[in-house]
Write a sequence for this structure.
């Protein structure tokens, strides 16, 4: 599924959101969950829904404390593992 999401994240981000959320429900924290969760956040960004992207970040850091996409996603959302709740200042 990760490859499918990666191929769609720019061309059909709404589909990526749908598939990533379904994958999360079906497979939970599987071996591809880091990639899937990062694609979900990137899809929200491509849909210009920064509130949804930022809202996903705490769960990303909780589920993937050493995730390979953490620094990249921080650069996109400005939400780090110890960021205070609420919109960025």
């Amino acid at each position: 599924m990760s490859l499918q999401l990666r191929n769609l994240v720019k061309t059909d981000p709404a589909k990526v959101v749908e598939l990533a959320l379904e994958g999360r429900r079906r497979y939970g924290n599987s071996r591809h969950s880091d990639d899937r969760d990062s694609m979900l956040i990137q899809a929200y960004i491509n849909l210009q829904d920064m509130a949804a992207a930022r809202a996903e970040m705490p769960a990303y850091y909780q589920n993937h404390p050493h995730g390979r996409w953490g620094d990249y996603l921080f650069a996109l959302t400005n939400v780090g593992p110890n960021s205070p709740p609420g919109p960025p200042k």
